[in-house]
Amino acid sequence: MGLGPADFARARAHMVKTQLAHRGVRDPLVLDAMGKVPREAFVGEGYEEFAYDDLPLPIGDGQTISQPYVVALMIEAAGVRAGDVVLEVGAGSGYAAAVLGRIAARVVAIERRPSLVEQARSRLERLGSGNVELHSGDGSRGWPEAAPFDVIIVSAGAPAVPEALKAQLAPGGRLLIPVGRSERYQKLLKLVRKGAAEYATENLGEVSFVPLIGEQGWTGKA
Ligand code: SAM
């Protein structure tokens, strides 16, 4: 017999406590949003029973939904607030976009793989995430139509910080991005826009993301 809504709700509450709060995630907006978005609706088919494990999981097309802790860590570090306009690059399953949508005013999310966009869009519609808009395309160039952004979260690893993303940050805006010379291992960087061409950069530690493929990311077909 499969797991029911009450089992998933229990597992979600346990994840928030043990994987997030006990590891130091404090922002009540983040803990609340992570406690509400059903991760079981975003993982690849057949992985539902593992939805609240402390792991990234497959979502198809060789891509992954990030570990819950990494999603929470990035959103907390970005200091997302109720009125914010947020860009997420690398929407994948749509999970992080749905979490962001519970906190921010508007979320623009971009995914380069059309098959993932279709699935993510129907999930977000089913869950009523009306303030999340999903686009198909190369997010390494950002999304100039909706800029400037208070927060930009990049959920894939780049070889360097794309200039287009820096330019689309609002004054005081925060950019969270994994950057590294290897396609699989990166440092999680936080940039804060201090002036027209002035950014403060902080290294938040080692992470491992799939590569950001595109004009201002890695080139190729990974
Ligand atoms: N945030 C996602 C979630 O909650 O499921 C997980 C993202 S997954 C780790 C990274 C995603 O970035 C993949 O789906 C990949 O196809 C996508 N990606 C890679 N390069 C991209 C680009 N230039 N523009 C948009 N999406 C990109």
How would you concisely characterize the structure shown here?
This protein is of the alpha/beta class. It has one domain (5-207): 3-Layer(aba) Sandwich (Rossmann fold), CATH 3.40.50.
Structure overview:
The chain is α/β, with parallel strands linked by helices. It has one domain (5-207): Rossmann fold, CATH 3.40.50.150. It is built from six helices and nine strands. The strands form two sheets. Strands 5-4-3-6-7-8-9 form a seven-stranded mixed sheet. Strands 1-2 form a two-stranded antiparallel sheet. Helix 6 links the parallel strand 6 (149-154) and strand 7. Helix 2 crosses helix 4. The protein is globular, with a radius of gyration of 16 Å. The chain starts with a helix and ends in a 15-residue tail after the last strand. The mean pLDDT is 96. S-adenosylmethionine (SAM) binds next to strand 2, helix 4 and strand 4.
SSE order in H/E notation? HHEEHEHEHEEHEEE
Report the strand count: 9
What's the name of the CATH homologous superfamily? Vaccinia Virus protein VP39
Number of domains: 1
CATH architecture: 3-Layer(aba) Sandwich
DSSP helical segment count? 6
Low-pLDDT runs of 5+ residues are none
Oligomeric grouping of the chains:
single chain
Largest sheet: 7 strands, mixed
What top-tier CATH class fits best? Alpha Beta
Percentage of helical residues? 25-40%
